[in-house]
């Protein structure tokens, strides 16, 4: 099939509507109205009435407080918490919306030892658990995120984050360096679904405050600075932790592409374009299936398959297709150009396969930019490998032909166009000669053998 860009349908995050019912439930009683025929009391009786009225108002205030507890007003706190122990997390989160007093009691229950044990299961390392068990743990923390969203509704964002951090900081697997086996741990994924549910519907300004709060807690920017300023692969464990934290906590689990694009923008935008490309490769690039470490040599040593490039291409399309105001088309094209030389210049077949996966709307501007910048020879070799990848990966060859024709139209001077076409011919001839020479010499090269078969 012809590679094509998928249009994304973006809709704003869902905003949870929370109704404050306590105001409707609390009815402040007023003193009875006197009729016009009532005689005016003397001074002594008036003082007595004022004293009685003051006492009555105090009783009414206490009654108003108790009324927001409904049928639980006569129960001791210990019995109330025992009842909460029989309710599901979803039921408790609904109950916390009844009134502020109920919400306060729920918050107190969360902080108790029994509530803490119940709400925060930490069976993150049971490697023998089934997929359904793992999913149930994730769903539990998703429900827990909704509970915290509702019971802290009346607090300012800063106070909400402090309270939530105080509770979650007790879980070691939620910390950046808290788990010794983060690759096989569900902890950060549970943290991610909790955070996603908590912040769903928040505006961008509040979500940015959440990101900066997490950066302060984890020293994430400082850790990234250490990695991007060093040779790739020097700090492999730190690279793996950054990758795991960013994917599991910040980027995965989102329903809408615009949300994922927002958090990815938070991660990348503070950095120069070179570091943006480095971080993008670190987070989405190919990794070892054995230990999870980032494979920096995968793109250099020889051709790789689509699976190694798909996540990286999807991330680039995410930034381009969401049309976020922070990213222009030129920004994304520059990012792709920088990616193709990390950590060194990629094998041209990998570059061609990556551009095909990125789609037409990224592939053509990328190639056109090379045309207008006088890089005709480099562009010609890329066109040749686009044709080879289309043949190897069973894409329609007509797509490669039309792409070359569109690129030809970019050249405004006929002489430049002729140089470009001649360079394509020379590139085809060169790759055929290289393949024949290796075959004739008897040297084993599956890549060139296959390439020669494809061309012929």
TrEMBL record:
This is F-box only protein 47. InterPro entries: ARM_FBXO47, F-box-like_dom_sf, F-box_dom, FBXO47. Pfam families: ARM_FBXO47 (PF24467), F-box (PF00646). Transmembrane segments: none annotated. Residues 18-28 have a biased composition (Polar residues). It comes from Crotalus adamanteus. Residues 69-108 form the F-box domain. Residues 1-10 have a biased composition (Basic residues). Residues 1-45 are annotated as: Disordered. CDD domains: F-box_FBXO47. Residues 30-39 have a biased composition (Low complexity). It comes from the Eukaryota.
């Amino acid at each position: 099939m012809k590679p094509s860009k998928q249009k994304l349908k973006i809709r704003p995050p869902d905003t949870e509507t929370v109704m404050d019912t306590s105001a409707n439930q609390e009815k402040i009683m007023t003193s009875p109205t006197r009729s016009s025929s009532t005689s005016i009391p003397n001074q002594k009786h008036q003082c007595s009435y004022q004293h009685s009225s003051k006492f009555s108002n105090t009783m009414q205030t206490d009654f108003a407080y108790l009324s927001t507890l409904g049928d639980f007003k006569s129960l001791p706190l210990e019995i109330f918490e025992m009842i909460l122990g029989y309710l599901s997390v979803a039921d408790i989160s609904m109950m916390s919306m009844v009134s502020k007093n109920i919400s306060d009691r729920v918050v107190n229950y969360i902080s108790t030892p029994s509530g803490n044990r119940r709400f925060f299961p930490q069976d993150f390392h049971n490697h023998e658990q089934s997929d359904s068990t793992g999913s149930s743990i994730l769903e539990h923390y998703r429900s827990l995120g909704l509970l915290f969203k509702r019971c802290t509704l009346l607090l300012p964002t800063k106070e909400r984050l402090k309270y939530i951090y105080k509770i979650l900081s007790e879980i070691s697997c939620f910390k950046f360096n808290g788990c010794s086996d983060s690759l096989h741990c569900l902890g950060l994924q549970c943290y991610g679904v909790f955070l996603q549910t908590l912040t769903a519907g928040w505006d961008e300004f509040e979500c940015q405050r959440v990101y900066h709060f997490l950066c302060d807690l984890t020293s994430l920017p400082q850790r990234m600075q250490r990695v991007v300023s060093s040779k790739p692969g020097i700090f492999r464990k730190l690279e793996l932790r950054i990758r795991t934290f960013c994917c599991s906590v910040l980027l995965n689990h989102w329903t809408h592409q615009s949300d994922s694009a927002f958090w990815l923008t938070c991660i990348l935008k503070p950095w120069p374009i070179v570091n943006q490309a480095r971080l993008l490769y670190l987070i989405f690039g190919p990794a070892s299936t054995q230990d999870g470490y980032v494979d920096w040599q995968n793109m250099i040593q020889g051709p790789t398959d689509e699976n190694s490039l798909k996540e990286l291409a999807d991330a680039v399309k995410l930034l381009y297709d969401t049309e976020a105001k922070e990213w222009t088309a030129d920004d994304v094209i520059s990012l792709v150009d920088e990616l193709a030389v990390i950590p060194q210049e990629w094998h041209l077949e990998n570059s061609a396969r990556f551009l095909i996966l990125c789609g037409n709307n990224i592939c053509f501007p990328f190639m056109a930019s090379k045309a207008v910048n006088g890089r005709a020879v480099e562009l010609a070799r890329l066109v040749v490998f686009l044709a080879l990848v289309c043949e190897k990966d069973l894409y329609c060859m007509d797509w490669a032909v039309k792409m070359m024709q569109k690129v030809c139209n970019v050249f405004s001077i006929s002489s430049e166009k002729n140089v470009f076409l001649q360079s394509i011919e020379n590139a085809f001839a060169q790759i055929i000669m290289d393949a024949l020479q290796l075959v004739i010499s008897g040297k084993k090269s599956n890549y060139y053998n296959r390439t020669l078969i494809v061309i012929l």
